[in-house]
Amino acid sequence: NFMLTQPHSVSESPGKTVTISCTRSSGSIATNYVQWYQQRPGSSPTTVIYEDHQRPSGVPDRFSGSIDSSSNSASLSISGLKTEDEADYYCQSYDSSNPVVFGGGTKLTVL
Amino acid sequence: QVQLVESGGGVVQPGRSLRLSCAASGFTFSSFAMHWVRQAPGKGLESVAVISYDGSHKHYADSVKGRFTISRDNSKNTLYLQMNSLRAEDTAVYYCARGPGTFRQDYWGQGTLVTVSS
Question: Which residue from A23, B10, B17, B62 lies 20 to 30 Å from A33 (Cα-Cα)?
Answer without folding.
Answer: B62
